[in-house]
Structures are given as structure tokens and as C-alpha cells.
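== Polypeptide entry ==
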Amino acid sequence: MEKLQRNERIAALIKILSDQPNQLFTFNYFVENFNCAKSTLSEDVELLKGIVEKFELGTIETVSGAAGGVKYIPVLGKEKVKTIVSNLCNSLSDSNRILSGGFLYMTDIIYNPTVVDNIGKIFAGQFINDDIDYVVTVETKGIPISMMTARYLNVPLIIVRRDSKVTEGSSVNINYVSASSRRIQTMSLSRRAIKKNSKVLFVDDFMKGGGTARGIIELMKEFESTVEGIAVLISTKEPSKKFINEYFSLMILNDVDEQQNIIDLKPGIKLD
């Protein structure tokens, strides 16, 4: 391959690293593909670091040693996160989203690729240093957000089902109490899905009482694994005492007033 100009190498670096976030690439990989000296590549990486940080796109991390290399960490800057969360709150506070029973219409948000991509980056950035092995969600609305989170953490996505599927072989089934309905429900996961002693991040679109999250914690115990974090798009203010204590919520729903057509939705993180 002919030698590339610096601007060509930088463009290729950005493309390769951003397409596979949190994936470590050796310097030799780029040296061989770009047909350049290692010292030249090091200069390119340093330049790219400055570009990424300037535009708050994350960070470029270099790892020294024989097994070292370079990778892109998708941790968004505070201003970008502030803009994303503020826009989400404004969009979801539209009174036209109120459904009977005090529910919110969120489907257009949850299945918007650009929106869920940004949410995935925020969630991944929150747990990037927790050595997560899997992202876990419960079918079905949490899947898009969970998929993007898994992508930016560079780990597999595991989908827990409401009932077992023949195509997934033998499974572990547990019963749990839904905090919102107080009904006993079932969740199922294939025995082959998760390795023992894994660390998982549970991601969901909505949480009221935390019953599903508590169920996931109990399910992971059956796999001798632990839930290292819980991330939800929206959690409700009430009940204040939930089945879990620690969780990361991007937004908090204080109230839905059907009579006044008012949705009181606030950021769940500090935007100062």
C-alpha cells in the first residue's frame, strides 16, 4: 500500500476507532495498514486526541507495553450531555404524549437511531470503568438503548425474555414481583447466555418501583454473576422507596397530570 498523507491517516484513524469503540488496536495494526513509521503514527494519535477532546467527542486512550495500543472511549463532554438530556426532556414533556392511565408515548424516541445512539454513549460513559462483561435488558422496548450501550462498551447484549424459547435450549426461569402491578411475573434466560462470575449492566427504558431490576439481580445470582450497575432512561419519582437503591436515571418523571395536560419531567443528572 502506498504511503498516506497525514490528513488521510487521521481520517482513517477516526473512522476505524469510532466504528469499533472501546476496542484496543495495536500500533502495529495501523503501522502495517498505513505503511508508516511508528513515530509518525504516535504523532497522528496525539493530534487525533486533541481533535476528539476539543469537540467533546470522547477520548483517545493509548495503552503502553507489548500488548498495548490505542482505542476510542465514547465519553461525551458535559455540554453535549446537557444538550442531549435537555432536548429529550423537552421532547418528552409534550402534552400530546400523555396516554390513558398516566403513561407516556415514547416509541418514536426509543426507536430513533440518532437518539438511542446518544443515550447509549451516555450510559456507556457512565460505566466505562466498571469492567462490564455484558449488557442485559428485558424484552422489548429497552432493546434499542441496550444495544447502543453494549456497542459503546464493546460487550455482548443479553436479552432476558418473559418466557423460555425452544430455540435457546435449556433456560433458567425465575418469578419476581412487579413493583407497579404487584403481580408475580416470570423472566427467562438461556443457560448458555452468560458465563459464571460475570459483571453485567442492566439497561431499561422505564422504571417505576424497580421490580424488574430486582428480578434481574436475582436472575444473575443463578448464573453466579453480579449486576454492577443499573441504567434507565426514565424513572418515576414515586414510589420513592423502590426495590433497589442504586441506579442511574437519565430523566425523572415527577408527575403526569391528565386533567391539566402537564408532564413534569426533569433531568436525572446534574447539568451544571
User: Anything to note?
Assistant: The chain has two domains: 6-73, 78-267. The CA atoms of residues 24 and 71 lie 5 Å apart.
